Amino acid sequence: MWLSDRRTFLVSLAALGGCGFTPVYGPEGAGTALQGAIRLRAPDGPGAYRFNQRFEERLGRSTSPTYEMAVNLSVKQVGMGSTSAGSTTRFRVDGTADVALTLIATGEPVLRETITAFTGYSTTGNTAATLAAERDAGARLMVILADQTVDRLLLNADRLAQAAR
Question: pTM for the full model?
Fold first, then answer.
């Protein structure tokens, strides 16, 4: 049975090659055009700083920017679990990133996206542990939002490259 699964896998790889599949970061991939081409606005808080840091880890710091990206981040905490005494023991942290990408040369908007994600943390420890868990949840949320933003940009990389021409 393993042999037939292996054959199916190899046949599907050959089919991908025949349909014009190219890796996004490959020599002819559209993702390479986005590396170092997007200038982020200066962060206005720790969450935005973490978002920008992760974004630049994935796509690089802008050296000769073609695009400018404005990101409006919002974070909301929602209590999820509680004890019989009424104290909350679990929080869900919801985050939204409203992303607007514009061409620097013309000021024309080329992409607008709203990206949402969530994470959570428990408050069952002492105060210091709860504060650390809250900070960690916020940092993880910004990494998730930045990763999803980069993924959306890479999915639209062909269209963005055409708009820049």
Answer: 0.83
